[in-house]
Amino acid sequence: DGLPPLEQKDTYTVGFAQMESNNPWRIAETKSFHDTAESCGWNLIATDAAGSAAKQVADVDSMIAQGIDVLFLPPREEKPLIPAVMKARAAGIPTFLIDRSVDPAVAKPGEHFVSFLGSDFIDQGRRVAEWTLENFEGEQGIIVELEGTTGSSPANDRRKGFDDVMAQHDNMTIVASQTGDFARDMGRQVMETLLQAHPDVNIVYAHNDEMAIGAIQALELAGRKPGEDVLVVSIDGTRDALQAIIDGKMGVTVESSPFFGPLACEVMNKYAAGETIEPWVQVQDRIFTVDNAAENIDAAY
Amino acid sequence: MLDTDALDLRKYLAGNTQTTAVWLALILLILFGLLRYDNFGGAYNIASFLNYNAMFIVISLGMCFVIMTGGIDLSVGSVAAFTSVVAAYLSPYGLDVAAPGAILAGAAFGAVNALFIIAMRIPPFIATLATMLGAKGGALVISGAETIGVDWGSNFTKLGMEKAFGTIPWAILIVAIVAVLLWIVLEKTSLGRTVLAIGGGEDASILMGLKVNRAKAFVYILSGACAGMAGLFLASGFGAGQPLEGIGWELSAIASVVVGGTLLTGGLGSVPATIAGALLLGLVFNILNFENGRGTISLSAYWQMVIRGGFLFVVILFQTRVSSQDQKVS
Amino acid sequence: MQPLVSMQGIEKSFSGVPALRAADLELAPGEVHGLIGQNGAGKSTLIKILTGVYRRDAGTVRFDGQDSTVSSPREAQVAGIATIYQELNLVPLRSVTENVMMGYEPKRLGVLVDWNEAHRRTREILSRFGIDIDVRARLGSYSTAIQQLVAIARAVSLDARLVIMDEPTSSLDANEVKTLFGVVKSLKAAGVCVLYVSHFLDELFAVCDRVTTMRDGQTVGVRNIAETSKLELIADMLGRNVEDIQAAGMTEFGGGTKEPGEILLTANDISTGNRLRKFDLNVHRGEIVGLGGLLGSGRTEAARALFGVDPLTKGRVTFKGAGSEPENPAAAIAEGIGFLTEDRKSEGIIPDMSVRENLTLALLPKLTRNAQIDRKREQELVAHYIKSLGIKTSDMDQPIRELSGGNQQKVLLARWLATQPDLLILDEPTRGVDVGAKLEIQSIIRDYVDQGFGVVLISSEFEELVEGADRIVVLQDGCSVSELQNPGITENALVKAIAHHHDQEVSA
Amino acid sequence: MTMTPATGKKAGGTMPARGILFRNLRHHGGIVALIVLLVFNALFTPNFLHLQTLFVNISQVATIAIVAMGMTLVIATGGIDLSVGAVMALAGALAPLIFQSEFAMAYPVLGLTAAIALPLAVAAICGVFNGAMVSILRVQPIIATLILFISGRGIAQVLTNGNLQTFKNPAFSYLGTGKILGLPFQGWLALAIAVLLYWVVRRTTFGRYLLAVGGNEQAARLSGGPVRSVKIGAYMICAFLSGIAGLIVVAINSASDAARNGNLMELDAIAAAVVGGALLQGGRAPIFGAILGAIIIQLVKYTLLANGIQDEVALIAKALIIVLAVYVQQTRKE
Ligand SMILES: Nc1ncnc2c1ncn2[C@@H]1O[C@H](COP(=O)(O)OP(=O)(O)OP(=O)(O)O)[C@@H](O)[C@H]1O
Ligand SMILES: Nc1ncnc2c1ncn2[C@@H]1O[C@H](COP(=O)(O)OP(=O)(O)OP(=O)(O)O)[C@@H](O)[C@H]1O
Ligand SMILES: [Mg+2]
Ligand SMILES: [Mg+2]
Hints:
The complex is a heterotetramer of chains A (301), B (330), C (508) and D (334). Chain B is an all-alpha fold and 330 residues long. Chain B is 75% helix and 2% strand. Chain B has 14 helices and four strands. In chain B, the strands form two sheets. Chain B has a two-stranded antiparallel sheet. Chain C is of the alpha/beta class and 508 residues long. Chain C has three domains: 5-246, Rossmann fold (3-Layer(aba) Sandwich); 251-336 and 421-508, P-loop containing nucleotide triphosphate hydrolases (Rossmann fold), CATH 3.40.50; 351-420, no CATH class. In chain C, strand 1 (5-14) and strand 2 form a beta hairpin. The model of chain C is unreliable at 502-508 (pLDDT under 50). Bound molecules: adenosine-5'-triphosphate (2 copies) and magnesium ion (2 copies). One adenosine-5'-triphosphate (ATP) is lined by residues 141-145, 275, 293, 295-301, 342, 460 of chain C. Chain B: It is found in: Cell membrane.
């Protein structure tokens, strides 16, 4: 049996089960859905699971109980959100996964949910690594890696993408890899400490821009020159990061756009119209460097 | 001895106004939800609400026992996360292995707490705070910092995803049985009475010759086992062992227990009222989700936090008002 | 005959300070054995070593001819030693039944507590003490006296071979003491040995066979009660000659010498709800007014009302000529009232604070200069009171919890004397205080009144009231019912005044 | 007749030696832990014996220490304050709102003053709320402060609409990045607060009442102690200090993140206070103990990070160290 169909209507009751709101990226994403709601004819029910996968499932449950037509779900974790996908399907609600996916071994696009809309976190890490290899000017790269929240999938994937590339290059060593919890303050504190233990560091890879900015602050407080003697690279493409690139303090940030609202609207309408949807609607992430940072900063969040 | 039942009930209400408050609040909130939202009272919502809250109820029950001795257990959330990983690893062997495995793992953490508190005389707050960190770290270590998928082929996921007789989620049914057993232990056994006596005065209980250490060990191991059971539900109901879950569960369990009229200083407590407290706090989330669905106002995540805090404030005001009237009456 | 208990050469010190040095105790089966000594002599400590609460530093303990292995109160109970500790050790939040039965509940099916049976048994046990109360109610809702009796009832019901009572009568009235004696005698008749600690020597003569006296952590003598006198016991306790002591009377109050001065306080028809319903009182300067009555008659409630602890629901209080209705203790203190509470442990001492800090607690507002405490004055004052009241403490910075009960009481008395209140309300000021200290406290009170201040004295000891008070207001069920004037009051007259009205009430 | 008290022991007088010895023993556990940590680091952690290490640790420990001192006062009354992190977030969220307002742009000095004073005032009000809940409504402290723990951060996010506020304001950033005599400003600030609070606890009437209330509330009240005001005062000071910590965090980062500022601070602060010798049942307020506790917690964090220990293992190590530190103290006390 196939996916539940979606009839074409003027307005839809749409569920958006956000996982958490404790960082600018998530907030921008939620806002993007709210902003799209009116133009797309959505009656939007947005919930917030405050970082708990279990609560996110319960939130989806309460949306199903309220009779939503469509579900947009950024699953907090790969596996624990599978029940949410299954329940929505059982209730005849087409589900689109946003920005993260679920374990494909159990729940498959085109069968249990319509499609996954998002980037490839592993690829993001890989692209940062590749850019770094090209643009690093020294001989020996001594790398400090600031990881995201321990155990979270973007942290795991962004580490994997980056580390796998670096492992193939003898002149690159990751001397320390510690969590900064995706937060600026933690990123700064961890960097301050690691800088003491590894004063010879010359590359900092942060799993998101917030930690990268924190690391830049730590470097500056310690009298180092980010951008000159230490290359800082990261992922997201926030306004602060673009500014840092313009200021020459940061090398690159690979975009990971939170503005999913319009894309979600478009894909949903196509689905309602009966078109087949790709199992993975891949978002084309741009890469911001000193070449294009200035022209993109106004659109950044 | 010739008391009629009616008299007893009146006496009960007079002597237990704190627990009366929580029942009243619960009923009011349910009525509010029923009147305001369509589908709020629908079978789907009720079943999924109970299924999700089974975890919190069982943790609150364990916490209630700990608090009755005047202690506290901050480790429950992390322990549940840990045991969910254990359960996920054991899931291929089916429920009859995974369930005891998870509950024993939880009980083991409870035993560590008991050891810290009884043998090493570390204050419960600190001892269980340490266990909280340790269990969280342990969960991440044994899971390799990833969620661990369960075996969907075995009967493991039945527990969290299927319903007994097609209507009652298994998890809540089991919690109900646990609750009845614990109620009997509390009201009808000397162990339960000792638990209460310790909270009422530990020194006095020792001088009265009660088996204080045994009862204290019991409550911490019980609380650990309850957390283990919650971890089991977590893994079974969500299909994965989740090392990152359980953050803040201890606080909501404590809040449930207190809203249920149990004194944090110990010596008083009630099993049914604790359940009511857990349901009450869980219901707030459910209601907020339904409120969002009405579309009149969209409550952002942070507004929801403000409202939840405000609600707790109101419930507590209500409770103190009711119980201060109680004092005046007597 | 082989002794039931034989303790020899017991030593015990607390953080280096010796509490017991070479203490001995020998109890014969079936005897009632008194244990006396001044506050801090080590009686309670000796008992706690016997029952395994404390571990001894040296010495031997033999129970029933064997080396005792008791190392916890639980084991003591199992071995057949039931104890009523000096500090009431019950759980006020739990019901009376639980407090009596805890640990020995009647069971059904081996595990489930049979509550009906438990309540029934509890009622039965309590009825031996003439108490008829709702055993399901929280113990804490009853008066100290009832709680004390419940503790005794629990111990007696344990089927022990040795029952230890550490100052069981300190909060009981005459009738209840009589009941207790009846119980002690029946225990004795049943072959149970009773160790009886008390500061009331009369009681020893009424029930004991032998008496052991302790002084400064040592056993100084064992006497057969039939062959000794009060004076000899006191002499043992104090370590002095019988002749010296004979030269003085038994209480230190002495009659009021001066005429009472101007009126200090008037309370008209005041009430704070159920427990204090209608209370009238006049206190003049230079006068000790006693409050008499049975336990639970509302004396403490009256004191609390005057001190602003419980708000008045009715009536008026005039203090020093002005209308007075202190909102809280702080205001009452500022107006010049002091209140020594009856429950030293829960309402008096701050256990972890030093003697110095405890002593000056009520005085702080007056010791404050620019938000700071005037340390020098504080130390002078404390040193003065330690000296003048003879408080036994290693130094003024010793935590008060390490002092014996009587010395704690003196510190608390000093706390109030230091504020120099115009009116001092004393609720059972000599409860649990040894003979020597009691006399000192009494004489301090008299001195204080002679300086032109007023005192309200609540005491369950008729002797103390009759000899100490210039006037006695008798309370009953929260109402003041009659007044007796000294000189001329006898214990008999007081008992009659209390009982008389009671009879009327009953027959009416 | 006169009766002298039983002689044998000297009555009155002072015996300072005993007091000092006792205090030392109580702090022994913490100091031993500190020495062990220092020695370990000196031997194994690369570049530990550098001045910059000191700077980093001082600047990081200051916030924990400041909050832990406030927590110590609250714990001394027998209470606990879970809301410190939320109050940090609230104060931290307000400051940029104020100094980035038009008014502050026009009058920088006034604006800066307001940007510090107003958030601290709001923080203090939060403390009054907590204190009033505990002392007037008699709500148990964990629950009373749980209310702001939940909603305080929510309020902060409502105020900022959930956004991260970034700014450039060197004068304000001095709070977190300034240096006096080469050492971080916030370190000096923490020290100054410690000295002040030590004086308050040891010498003032408020301090005496604080310990009395924690030691035996009934007795304190019946001796005329202003129980309510003392409790409210303790919670107010704690919240005020949390406010300062919140401002420092914002100042260091030149950004205010209401969602993260002060996250989990309550646990660190409580652990620091207890490792420093505070008793949860009240009656004791070791201010410098709290600083010692904060330093230990900071050093543990530093040691594990600098030696590349994974986060999850670090959690376990932290747990063991807390247990050990408290256990050592516990045994020394007996
Ligand atoms: N837990 C303790 N810690 C320190 N010192 C103690 C402790 N218990 C008792 N002491 C000290 O031991 C001595 C003996 O005290 P104990 O309570 O045995 O006296 P007591 O004879 O029972 O006096 P009282 O008649 O006042 O009850 C006293 O000096 C007391 O200060
Ligand atoms: N906490 C309480 N709750 C309910 N009733 C109480 C409580 N405390 C005392 N009572 C009752 O109130 C009445 C008056 O008690 P109160 O303590 O004033 O008597 P009292 O004459 O001072 O006796 P005592 O000599 O024991 O102090 C008694 O009947 C007593 O049983
Ligand atoms: Mg004694
Ligand atoms: Mg009384």
